[in-house]
Design a protein that fits this description.
Elements: H1 10-14, H2 68-75, H3 77-87, H4 92-113, E1 125-129, H5 135-148, E2 157-160, H6 162-165, H7 173-184, E3 188-192, H8 207-220, E4 226-231, H9 233-242, H10 244-249, E5 252-256, H11 261-274, E6 278-279, H12 281-294, H13 303-324, H14 330-334, E7 335-336, H15 338-342, H16 345-348
Parallel strand pairs: 1-4, 1-5, 2-3, 3-4, 6-7
Helix pairs in contact: 3-4, 3-5, 7-8, 11-12, 11-13
C-alpha cells in the first residue's frame, strides 16, 4: 500500500484531480533536493530506504490491533514525558498539553500503518510565559519527542535570538537567517523573544527580511524542522497581529504559568542538592522569605533568579569559610546558612 508523502495534499497526494500547480520558488537552506523528495531517516530499527512511518512496524489490516503503550515505549514518548516530570517543578498545564500533543502524534502514526489518512501535522509552536519558566527545557524535550516519533530526523535544538538572525547592513540578514535555519534542519529552531524581530516604524530595520525567510522555511521545510517562538504573551500577540503569516503557521500555543513561591523553593532545593550542598533549617526559611520579596521586584526571572541567588549565597559561604582562617570539615563545606542568604540586598529593600 502506497501512502502520500507527508505534507502532500490534493492532487499531489492522490495523483488525480488535474495537473498540479507550479510550486513557488524555494529558498535553499543547504539541501539540493526538494523537501518532498528528501527521505526522512527512520528511527532505529527501520530498514534502510523505508517509507516514513515504517519504523513503527509493518502496514496493518482491518483485523489487526496495535498496543499504543508499546508504540509509546518504542518511540521514547514516556521517557520524554517522565523526564519532564522529573526535571521541571510544577507547570501542570504545560505537561498536560504536551501529553495531549504526544497522544495525537502517536495515534496518527498508528493510523498511517493502517493506511488511513492522517495529514501532515503542523509542528510549529508558540511558548508564552515569563522568563525562567522552563520554555527552553521543554523545547529541548519536544525535539526528542518529535524525533522519537519519526517526525524529525535528528531531534537537536538550535536556540536563536534576533542577533542570530538579523544583520546590521544590507545583504547581511539573509545569509545569517538561512544559516541558522540550515543548522536547525532535522530538529527544532527555538527563537526566544521572537517579537524583537519586528520593529514597527523603523524602515531601516532588517527584521522583516528575517521574518520573510523564516515564513518560507516554515512552509517549505515543515516536514524537516519545527519552529518554536517564545516570549511574553502580550508581546507575542502584538507580534502576530503585525505578522499574520506567522500566526497562521503556528498550530500549537502553550502557555507557561509563573511558578509559585513554594514551587520556586522546591526548585532551589533541587539546585542545592545537585551541587552537593544542603540548606540549614534557618536557610530554608530564609530562601522562602527571599523569594517572596524578590518576586515583587523588577526583573524577576523565575528559576534563573533562584539560581542567581544561590550562586551569590555560595560566594558568601566561601568568603565566610575563607575568613575564618581555620580548619573546616565536610559539614562546613556543604551547608548554606541563613546569613549566606540574608546578606542579599533584597532583604534591605523590603
Amino acid at each position: 500500500m502506497r501512502r502520500a508523502e507527508p505534507g502532500a495534499t490534493g492532487p499531489r497526494a492522490g495523483g488525480t484531480g488535474g495537473p498540479a500547480t507550479a510550486a513557488p520558488p524555494r529558498i535553499a537552506f543547504g539541501s539540493s533536493a526538494p523537501a518532498a523528495d528528501r527521505a526522512r531517516p527512520a528511527s532505529p530499527g527501520a530498514e534502510p530506504g523505508a517509507e516514513p512511518g515504517a519504523e513503527l512496524g509493518a502496514e496493518l489490516g482491518a483485523g489487526d490491533t496495535v498496543d499504543l503503550n508499546e508504540v509509546r515505549r518504542e518511540a521514547g514518548v514516556d521517557d520524554v514525558l517522565d523526564g519532564l516530570d522529573r526535571e521541571l517543578v510544577g507547570l501542570a498545564p504545560v505537561k498536560q498539553r504536551l501529553r495531549e500533543l504526544a497522544a495525537l502524534l502517536v495515534v496518527d502514526r498508528v493510523r498511517a500503518r493502517f493506511g488511513l489518512a492522517t495529514g501532515a501535522p503542523t509542528l510549529h509552536m508558540c511558548f508564552t510565559g515569563s522568563p525562567g519558566t522552563g520554555k527552553t527545557t521543554v523545547a529541548r524535550r519536544m525535539a526528542g519527542l518529535l524525533h522519537g516519533l519519526g517526525y524529525l530526523r535528528t531531534g537537536h535544538l538550535v536556540s536563536a535570538t534576533r542577533d542570530d538572525l538579523v544583520g546590521e547592513y544590507v545583504g547581511h540578514t539573509a545569509p545569517k537567517t538561512k544559516e541558522t535555519v540550515r543548522r536547525a534542519l532535522g530538529g527544532v529552531l527555538f527563537i526566544d523573544e521572537a517579537y524583537y524581530l519586528h520593529r514597527a516604524g523603523n524602515e531601516r530595520d532588517y527584521g522583516g527580511e528575517a521574518i520573510e525567510i523564516l515564513l518560507q522555511a516554515m512552509e517549505d521545510h515543515r516536514d524537516d524542522v519545527a519552529v518554536i517562538l517564545a516570549g511574553y504573551a502580550d508581546r507575542m500577540q502584538t507580534f502576530f497581529a503585525a505578522n499574520p503569516g506567522m500566526q497562521s503557521r503556528i498550530a500549537h500555543h502553550v502557555e507557561f504559568p509563573d511558578f509559585s513561591v513554594d514551587e520556586l523553593a522546591e526548585i532551589g532545593g533541587r539546585m542545592v542538592r545537585e551541587l552537593d550542598l544542603t540548606l540549614s533549617a534557618d536557610a530554608t526559611t530564609a530562601l522562602h522569605e527571599y523569594l517572596e520579596l524578590r518576586m515583587r521586584q523588577p526583573w524577576f526571572a523565575g528559576a534563573r533568579s533562584v539560581r542567581n541567588a544561590l550562586d551569590r549565597a555560595r560566594m558568601r559561604q566561601a568568603q565566610r569559610l575563607a575568613s575564618t582562617g581555620g580548619a573546616v570539615g565536610l559539614s562546613d563545606l556543604v551547608t548554606l546558612t541563613a546569613p549566606d542568604l540574608r546578606a542579599s540586598r533584597v532583604f534591605g529593600l523590603s
